[in-house]
Amino acid sequence: MLSLRYILAAAMIVATAGAAASQTIRLDDRGFTFRFGKDDRRGDVEGKRASCEVYARIAQVQSDANDRYRCGFRGPQWNHDLGVHFRWCRWASRGDLARDQLFRSQQLQACFNRLGDFDDRR
Fold it and tell me: What's the CA gap between 21 and 32, in Å, rounded?
């Protein structure tokens, strides 16, 4: 299961940074259904499905922040498509999920730091 600390950290980074430019965060699933396929051997595990849904939504919000603040990060981890993240998640270990979210959070924080901080006393 994803660590609540990582989920909250990712959500707070995006929400806090987003407040400076906008009061909305896109959580559009574009009609995607968070279900495993009939032939998926993990399809009957509700906890895994729920974990992957949360993982995919956080990944999408992080990807949107990457674009909104012109951070320039590229690659499959920065894909906007919920389905891509959900399908990858179903085979990933809990540790891989946590590392992936933490990686994106750290990359975004470095980008936000380059943008400047309103607490700087310069």
Answer: 27
Name the pTM for this structure. 0.66
Tens digit of each residue's pLDDT (9 = 90 or more) over 36-76: 666 666 555 777 888 888 999 999 999 999 999 999 999 99
Calculate the CA 18 to chain-centre distance.
14
Amino acid at 38: K
* Counts for the chain of helices (H) and strands (E), in that order: 4, 0
CB-count exposure of residue 20 (10 Å: 0-12, 13-18, 19+)? exposed
Please report which residue ranges of 22-89 form alpha helices under DSSP H.
46-68, 82-89
